[in-house]
Structure formats: C-alpha cells, structure tokens
Design brief:
By secondary structure, this protein is mainly alpha-helical. 45% of the residues lie in helices and 5% in strands. The protein has helices at 19-27, 54-72, 84-94, 108-123, 153-162, 208-221, 228-231, 245-249, 255-268, 273-295, 316-324, 330-342, 347-360, 365-375, 381-392, 406-413, 418-423, 438-441, 452-470; strands spanning 4-8, 31-36, 78-81, 97-103, 127-131. Helix 9 packs antiparallel against helix 10 (273-295), helix 10 (273-295) packs across helix 15 (381-392) and helix 12 packs across helix 13 (347-360). The longest helix has 23 residues, at 273-295. It is globular. The structure holds flavin-adenine dinucleotide (FAD). Flavin-adenine dinucleotide is lined by residues 232, 241-245, 248-249, 278, 281-282, 284-285, 288, 346-347, 350-351, 354, 372, 376, 378-380, 383-384, 387-388, 391, 483.
C-alpha cells in the first residue's frame, strides 16, 4: 500500500485553505490527520492562573469535534492522543508514512513539542514540511527578512502595502478512500465541567462550521462590514465588530479566506474605509505574530521590547479586584465581568482595562496578560502579549505615558451607561451616565480602589524614572493608528 501523508493539526483546526492537504491529494496520497492535546496547555502560568480557562477549553473541544466531522466527510481520519508525539507514534505503528506536514508556531512551548514530533518522524525517514497558515501574508512574500521586520506598525504596513500579495485560498480536498490498518482514532475529550455557556459565550461555538457561518452572517446577512469602522469601538452589541477572533485564533478560519470574502464584498456591495479597516486590523494581527517571530521570548519579559525597568507592583488585593470586576470604576468592572462571563471583551474594553491595570494600579502587566490568557476565547500568544506590551508602554512604539481617561472613554463609548448597566446588576437602577460615576450619582457600589488622578500621577512618576534609568526617550511616538487611535493610514496609498 502507498505510504500516507500525515497532517498534524495544531492551531489550524479547519479543512478549508490547507495547502498541505491539497498538495497531498494532488500527489494522490491518502491523508491521515493527527492531534495532540498538548496543544492546549492546562498547567498554571507564572502567576498561578490556569493557562486554558473553561471558555477556551469548551471552544477547543467543539472545534475539534467539528474538525473530525468535516474531515470524516472527506474520508480523512483524525487520530487524537494526549500528545502529538503519541498520535504520530500510533499512526506509524500501523501504516507507512511518507510525509508529515504541520503549521509553524512561534512560541517556545510549541517549538519544544515540535522538536519531539519531528525527531520521531525523521527517525522513520518521514519527510517533514512546515506550512505558514496562520497569517494573512505569507512570510516568504514579505519585502524583508524576519530579522529586518520594522519595529513600528506604520512602517511595516506601508512596506507591505507597497509589495502587496495575499495568496489564493487553497481549494478543499476531495473525498478519499478509507485508509487500512489505522490505529484506534481515539476519543475526543468532552468540554470540561463548568464550561460556561450563557447568552454571550453561546454565540461563539467552536469549529470552522460556526466560524464560516459567522463570516457569512457578519458580511452578507447582517451587512455590517460597510459600517465596521464606525461601530468597531462599540462594547455592547455583538455586531459592533466582526467577532471573528476566536475562530482566527484556533485556525478554524483562515485569514486569507476572510480577505477573499472582503474583496468579494467590495466587488458586490461596497468598497469603503470600513472594508479597508478590517484588512488593516488583520495586518495588526500579522504584525504581532511577526514581531513574536523576530523577538522570541522577549515578548514575555517584564521590561518589554523597550527594556524599560518600571517598578511594577504585584499587590494581590488589587489584582483580585481587577480580575473580579470590583475596582469601583464601572467601565473597568463591566468589561472584566463580561470577560469572565463570556471569554470575550471588545478591543476598546481591552485597552481601557489594560491601561487602568498598568497606569493606575501600577501592576505588573504580565499578570494582566496571564489573566487574559486564562480567560480569552481568542487568546493568541503574539496578539495578547504584544498588545499588553503596548498598553503597558514597554512595547515597540515610542516612550510615552499613554493613559486612558476613564470618564472620557465612558463619554465617548457608553454615554448613556447602557453597557455598564448590562454587566453590573448593582447599577441597574442608576440613571443615564450616572451609572459610570456611582460616587456622584449616589448609587450603592463598591468604593473606588484608587483615586484616578493621584494614582495616574504616581505611576507616571514611576514610568518617567524608568525612562531616565534606561537612558531617556526613544522611538517615534504613538503608533496605534488601528488598535489604539492616533494617526491614520493613507487608504489611497494602498495596493491590494
Ligand atoms: P475586529 O475589530 O472585528 O477585528 C478583526 C480581526 O482583526 C480580529 O478578529 C483580530 O484577529 C484582528 N485584530 C483586531 N484588532 C487587533 C489588535 N489590536 N491586535 C491584533 N489583532 C487584532 N486579539 C486576539 O486575537 N487575541 C488576543 O489574545 C488578544 N489580546 C489582546 C490584549 C489586549 C490588552 C488588547 C488591547 C487587545 C488584544 N487583542 C487580542 C486584539 C483585539 O482586542 C481583538 O482581536 C478584538 O477585540 C477581537 O474582536 P473582533 O474579532 O470583533 O475584532
């Protein structure tokens, strides 16, 4: 019997846009999928939070069941074991394997798993082929080597827009004959007990079937892409932004498939600033991933890419109040409660709570990042730690103490108080904007954990002392034109 091609699924839990599967079918090879649960770390992180919380655990379990079903329709088996090495070993025990394909992962924990699997494959003369399937732009199509990746997003964006190339979406593999002598495919682990499914999180069902359905719903049925740029900062409505992130993070959706749909939408409905802006945000995602590839574990260092020795606090009472949504600042608390209840928080919310955590509570940004890692449905190592570094002021952008003024954020993004009333039952009776300032409106609510202005002054002084110790200001200043406000890209200069 002809040797088979094994595809190792990791954060690419989909059948669509998988060049490795297409290549195997073109060669006439039968495909066997493998998956190891070591792709989902459940141990405690550095600060004690379990790395994969119940929301993402539930989502992954659903995504894997969906993947097995979708592969099954094409006659492709998915062999699962506790580890990827065990899954590969089980397949090697029954059938001859010619090739092993797998998506690359930048994080060191994943690279260590990779070494074991590749060692085993090579010892059996299996040809190993890595695929880059997580990003919109293929690393080989970039106009610079990873080592030459610009430090600033705007420079990166301009460069890639000048040499714009997004690869075609790979066609889906057809049906294949059943593979003989396969080992037991293994039982999928059920979603863990306590996995929350309420009105918010229930809309995020794991798997490519649900991901593709959300893409169809957001663009074509709800027709919301045309106003994305105006609504993307909203915190209350599901359709304020695409909500594609959980499926992107697990690879249930390919960014190239999203891009192809945006381009079709532009041809068939409208091409405007909003359609451009969604692509622009996907570029942020690529930028963080490439930054991780370039910087390696520096992404996790306390002093960040800037090497700024800020004296962070680790006060456990403050950390707990923030995690539980009991800081006394409703706009922070509502966002933190939404995160715990659903595993999701809007981009606006994430920026607000991360600014408060680092600029008012003065807490070590890595604790906040680890709590997000535990909670988020869409946790993605590069986007999470990259965005946290930015929020803490230790990322690649220039040295500047950027503080989110909570009152102003509330006035701009929740002027009637609807969002905070939705997530904070104690404030349901507070009228209008008064829900944001219970200390003024007289609503009965937990007292503020710190004074906003005094805490900001104190942390600014700490920040400036660190800048002096590190040798003064550097960089070119604000660079969050997409994710955090600031300078606009020149939409007309783009080529795509
Ligand atoms: P949309 O606004 O519809 O954007 C479309 C897609 O673009 C998103 O799905 C996402 O893939 C990408 N994107 C948008 N904004 C960003 C951004 N700032 N950085 C990187 N990619 C972006 N995003 C994650 O996917 N995983 C994370 O772990 C994560 N952690 C974050 C931590 C902090 C402190 C902050 C400030 C942001 C973080 N983000 C993270 C980015 C962003 O908040 C989410 O991608 C976004 O809120 C997801 O909702 P959406 O799909 O509706 O986004």
């Amino acid at each position: 019997m002809k040797p088979v091609a094994v595809h190792w699924f990791r954060n690419d839990l989909r059948v669509h846009d998988q060049p490795a599967l297409v290549a195997a079918r073109r060669r006439g090879d039968a495909i066997v999928g493998i998956y190891g649960y070591d792709a989902e770390p459940y141990g405690a992180g550095r600060f004690g939070f379990c790395k994969t919380g119940p929301h993402r655990a539930r989502f992954r379990a659903e995504a894997l069941a969906d993947l097995r079903a979708n592969l099954g329709e094409r006659g492709i088996p998915l062999v699962v074991r506790d580890t990827a090495a065990e899954a590969l070993s089980a397949v090697l025990g029954g059938v001859a394997v010619a090739r092993l394909s797998y998506p690359t992962e930048p994080a060191s924990e994943e690279t260590a798993i990779e070494r074991d699997v590749l060692r085993m494959a090579r010892a059996r003369a299996v040809r190993c082929e890595a695929y880059a399937g997580h990003s919109l732009l293929h690393p080989e199509d970039l106009p610079f080597a990873i080592a030459g990746l610009p430090d600033l997003f705007t420079t990166f964006r301009k460069e890639v827009e000048r040499h714009w190339r997004v690869r075609e979406v790979a066609p889906e593999p057809g049906r294949q004959e059943l593979v003989a002598n396969l080992p037991d495919v293994g039982t999928l682990r059920p979603a863990p007990n306590g996995a929350v499914s309420n009105a918010g999180s229930a809309r995020f069902t794991g798997g490519e079937t649900a991901g593709l359905a959300r893409l169809q719903e957001y663009l074509w049925e709800r027709d919301r892409l045309r106003v994305y740029k105006e609504t993307r900062n909203g915190m209350l409505q599901f359709d304020d932004s695409s909500k594609l992130s959980p499926w992107l993070a697990a690879g249930c959706l390919s960014p190239r498939r999203i891009y192809a749909e945006i381009r079709r939408y532009e041809r068939e409905r409208v091409e405007n600033d909003s359609t451009y802006w969604l692509i622009f945000e996907l570029l942020w995602r690529d930028f963080f991933r490439l930054t991780h590839l370039k910087q390696g574990d520096r992404l996790f260092l306390r002093d960040g890419l800037q090497r700024l020795p800020i004296e962070w606090s680790r006060d456990p009472a403050m950390v707990a109040a923030w995690c539980e949504g009991k800081t006394g600042y409703p706009i922070v608390d509502a966002n933190m409660r939404e995160l715990s209840a659903t595993g999701y928080m809007s981009n606006r919310g994430r920026q607000i709570v991360a600014s408060f955590f680092t600029k008012n509570l003065g807490l070590d940004w890595r604790i906040g990042a680890e709590w997000f890692e535990h909670q988020l449905l869409d946790y993605d190592v590069a986007s999470n730690y990259g965005n946290w570094q930015y929020a803490a002021g230790v990322g690649n952008d220039g040295r500047e103490f950027r503080l989110f003024n909570l009152r102003r954020q509330a006035e701009m993004y929740d002027p009637k108080g609807d969002y905070v009333r939705y997530w904070i039952p104690e404030l349901r009776r507070a009228m209008g904007f008064g829900a944001h300032e219970p200390w003024r409106s007289g609503a009965d609510y937990v007292p503020r954990i710190v004074d906003f202005d005094a805490s900001a002054r104190e942390n600014r002084a700490r920040y400036e002392a660190a800048v002096r110790r590190a040798g003064g200001p550097s960089g070119t200043g604000r660079d969050r034109s997409g994710a955090g406000g600031g300078g606009k890209p020149n939409r007309h200069s783009r080529r795509r």
